[in-house]
Write a structure and sequence with these properties.
heterodimer; A: 163 residues; alpha+beta; Thiol Ester Dehydrase, Chain A; two-stranded antiparallel sheet; 9 strands; 35% strand; B: 139 residues; six-stranded antiparallel sheet; 37% strand
Chain lengths: 163, 139
């Protein structure tokens, strides 16, 4: 099983290059700084949600927001460690424009000893006209043996959707 | 095949993103179970390994959309207004199942709860609560 030494060294690209699903969806790194991260999901026909409208699926935006929030947590704590999403709330204000990719930016505005709090928004053309906003909480630095799983057969190194 | 089953197949078959994830669904009467077979491109954390949290959010969101559509016989997809996803355990590289329960449905809004599990139905990996805007039936 895993331990912390399996995880890559921290870098501005966070966990970006490291997640198979992020690569499969084609996430592009845009920028990052302390506690902030920005990613882009380029438009692709196979990521469309409603073929009548020709826009990127809400679910793909969900995956982008989840990932950019985790990236911002990596940028807020100064070491790479397993983190796990506890909850993710998304408000969808509008559909993306047909044929356009989606940007997402996240800010990890508070880190406690074990929890990180993050806000994010997603837009296509204008950052001030978001198509979705998100609020998330992550468990960080989840030590082996401290997991919340009631089932002893499950990995105890983390709770929630470890990424 | 019932009309509802055909409707469900047509609905999921028409969503490119559902095909991309490899999602399908089965009906037992009016009870729908959505199925997401494991595939390597769904992994978020390769060291555990665990399925990406965003994949599970998307899977449960589309489960809710499909459940509303088959209940209402909609030809246009409902649109998500807000969703809240709770992650209870890491989702391991196994088939994931989900069922949606429509808690309230009005003229324009549906409130839906979804549970996703893997090996044990009583130990869900993730939960979703959401509101969805119903599209009017086509003229």
């Amino acid at each position: 099983m895993s331990n912390k030494t399996d995880f890559p060294k921290p870098s501005g690209r966070g966990n970006f290059d490291w997640s198979p699903h992020a690569q499969a969806l084609g996430f592009e790194f845009v920028s990052s700084q302390k506690a902030w991260a920005t990613l882009k999901l380029p438009f692709r026909e196979d990521l469309v949600g409603d073929p009548d409208a020709g826009v990127i699926a809400g679910g793909a935006v969900t995956a982008l927001l989840d990932h950019v929030c985790g990236h911002a947590v990596m940028m807020a704590i100064d070491f790479m460690t397993p983190i796990a999403t506890l909850d993710l709330r998304i408000d969808y204000m509008r559909a993306a424009e047909p044929g356009l990719g989606v940007f997402a930016q996240a800010h990890c505005y508070k880190v406690t000893r074990s929890i990180a709090f993050v806000r994010a928004s997603a837009w296509d053309k204008d950052k001030d006209d978001p198509l979705a906003t998100a609020q998330a909480a992550f468990m960080i630095n989840s030590d082996p043996g401290r997991g919340g799983s009631a089932n002893p057969s499950e990995p105890s190194s983390s709770q929630g959707a470890a990424r | 095949m019932s009309d509802t089953s055909d409707h469900l197949d047509a609905l999921l078959g028409r969503i490119p993103y559902a095909r991309y994830l490899g999602m399908r669904a089965e009906l037992a009467g009016d009870e729908m179970t959505a199925i997401l077979p494991f595939a390597p491109h769904l992994i978020g954390n390769p060291t555990l390994p665990a399925i990406h949290g965003g994949v599970l959010g998307a899977f449960m969101e589309m489960t809710a959309l499909a459940q509303i559509s088959i209940m209402q016989g909609l030809t246009r997809q409902p649109r998500p207004i807000d969703i809240s996803v709770e992650y209870l355990r890491p989702a391991r590289p196994l088939t994931t199942y989900a069922r949606a329960e429509i808690r309230k449905i009005g003229r324009r809004i549906a409130n839906v709860h979804v549970e996703a599990w893997q090996e044990t139905r009583a130990s869900p990996v993730t939960l979703l609560r959401g509101h969805f805007l119903l599209s009017p039936k086509e003229d």
